[in-house]
Design brief:
Blueprint: H1 2-22, H2 30-50, H3 56-65, H4 70-94, H5 107-129, H6 140-159, H7 165-174, H8 182-203
Length: 206
């Protein structure tokens, strides 16, 4: 149960940070920095408990890597989505007076952007947080947070920079993304998680 609570809390604060930084503000450089920082601290906070996935695509990659049972993965995903939806509700209270406009991304560009940076994220997670060669390192949270920050800076204006199906669900619930676009994130993010998991297995000497 502690693992599920940790996954819910971490995902909650990640999505809460995204909503509070994006809705009703002039985004600029602040959202990527804040989002990356929040993910970093939540990874450090929860890594020793649940592995700090906070992302169904990461969970899928870890399953393929062989470090998470399918039964556990189902619980993780439910906790992650639950945390994202709870965060979306809280954002709606905190930002109730702000106008929200759903982005309308180019489908091909959004698919490509989400796939590439979700792949990068899951690939980094597997190598810094699950590989024997980096076991007990002290930089894994920073590496993971920095990957999301770099992705948000790079393609945030193209796809919204979710890199995470739970985040995409949260963005949809907040009205930042149209419900008709949710498939873009689910397809790109989950496919990238599979690709990263298979890539890790193919390259690993473990």
């Amino acid at each position: 149960m502690n693992k599920l609570i940790t996954e819910c809390i971490g995902t909650f604060f990640l999505v809460l940070t995204i909503g509070c930084c994006v809705i009703g503000t002039n985004p600029g450089a602040i959202p990527p920095l804040a989002i990356g920082a929040m993910l970093m601290v939540m990874v450090f906070a929860g890594g020793h408990i649940s592995g700090a996935h906070y992302n169904p695509a990461v969970t899928l990659g870890v399953v393929i890597r062989g470090r998470c049972a399918i039964a556990d993965a189902v619980g993780y995903v439910i906790a992650q989505v639950g945390g994202a939806l709870a965060a979306a509700f809280v954002v709606s209270l905190l930002k109730s007076d702000a106008q929200v406009v759903a982005m309308t991304p180019n489908v091909f560009r959004a698919l490509l952007a989400e796939f590439l940076f979700t792949f990068a994220l899951v690939y980094v997670v597997l190598n810094v947080a699950t590989a024997k060669g980096t076991e007990h390192n002290s930089f894994y949270g920073l590496a993971i947070g920095a990957t999301v920050m770099a992705g948000a800076f790079s393609v945030g204006t193209i796809s919204g920079g979710a890199f995470n199906p739970a985040v995409a669900i949260g963005l949809t619930a907040m009205g930042l993304s149209a419900s008709s676009n949710i498939w873009i994130y689910l397809v790109a993010n989950l496919t990238a998680g599979v690709a990263a998991g298979l890539t890790f297995r193919a390259m690993s000497t473990e």
